[in-house]
Design brief:
Helices cover 25% and strands 32% of the residues. It contains five helices and ten strands. A six-stranded mixed β-barrel has the order 1-2-8-3-7-6. α1 packs across α2.
């Protein structure tokens, strides 16, 4: 049936032949195609197996200097009990909670140090810090404190630059 149509119409036959030939298609020359080629030829990323935690030196209540861990994954500020006792800060035992730990357990907190003064490079800041009996850190500065001071971090290969703004 198709052969009958092609034998009747030379124009239709010529068009069918043109469409059935293999054709060379030119390579894409768009910027995105060039970027894809450039990306494929770049060396692989340097992905680290581990990076150190970020800590800053702080002074608590004007009396005790300590390294504080910056933790963007924590919803609270946490202070270890032995560090709290060095600050002479009163504790509110009516404000208590259980903390979900990173390893899936939970830990009862002794109370809250309301308006704990945290001095960073002569910038006075404050936080409500929950007291825990034991922790692998002295002071954990979580999201509430980071939001208060508009914390920003810029990392390069050799260092981290932390900015803290006066609340």
């Amino acid at each position: 049936m198709i052969s009958d149509l092609l034998s009747i119409s030379p124009e239709l036959r010529r068009e069918a032949v043109e469409h059935s030939h293999t054709q060379r298609v030119p390579a894409l020359t768009s910027p995105s195609a060039k970027a894809l080629v450039a990306t494929a030829s770049t060396p692989p990323l340097q992905i680290e197996h581990a990076t150190p935690l970020r800590e800053i030196r702080v002074t608590l209540n004007g009396t005790h200097s300590e390294l504080a861990l910056l933790d963007e994954g924590s919803e609270i500020v946490v202070i270890r009990q032995d560090v709290w006792q060095k600050t002479n800060t009163p504790i509110n035992q009516d404000v208590r909670m259980r903390m979900q730990t990173a390893n899936g357990g939970s830990q009862e907190m002794a109370g809250c140090l309301e308006m704990l003064e945290i001095d960073v490079e002569s910038i006075k800041t404050w936080a409500h810090a929950y007291v825990v009996p034991e922790a692998p850190y002295c002071l954990l500065l979580g999201r509430p404190w980071q939001r208060l001071v508009h914390l920003s971090k810029a990392e390069d290969t050799d260092s981290v630059h932390v900015s803290v703004h006066d609340p």
